[in-house]
Amino acid sequence: MQHDFCPGGALAVPRGDEIVPTVNRLAANFRTVVLTQDWHPAGHLSFASAHPGKSPYEIIAMPYGAQVLWPDHCVQGTRGAAFHGGLDIPHAGLVIRKGTDRAIDSYSALYENDRTTPTGLTGYLRERGIERLFVAGLALDFCVRYSAEDAVREGFAVVVIEDACRGIDVAGSMAATRSSFAALGVAAIAAREPVAATGPRIGS
Length: 204
Ligand SMILES: [Zn+2]
Known about the structure:
The chain is an alpha/beta fold.
């Protein structure tokens, strides 16, 4: 939940700011909360501006695979990279800053986009005995999707709280996300659903 991903920001997710109250309310129910923060150096290679002649939302081949090019966003230390001012999760114990390597983008909270360089989050969660993750935020079809996919691969049970997310939908990415979640067994629920109905470990 960062300024640049909300309306008025450099890479705004439509209606991205709407979910802030829901995210706050959900987070209050959990003992272990991890925030993620896109944290790019200037000139990051996910920025269209770093590739002469390219425009935002074009897709190029990077050494680790296809990469959507984005407007410059979430540059380290800028207001755009700061958390949304309405975010109110003082008990969050960890902030994962990702995308800090100029040459590799990082959608997932667990791995950079090469799918092999870990952020360390898996170890943090395992050492704390966490078995199930509830994911919310922006954007559903990129950072939420990749985080959920990687978490399933790491053996966590994963629930995406869909109405506590908003998508951006680039080149069919929303449809691809839904297919992927179905194939991997990522559960999608609504924030209004009683969380206790999903199992006894809520709050862990
Ligand atoms: Zn980014």
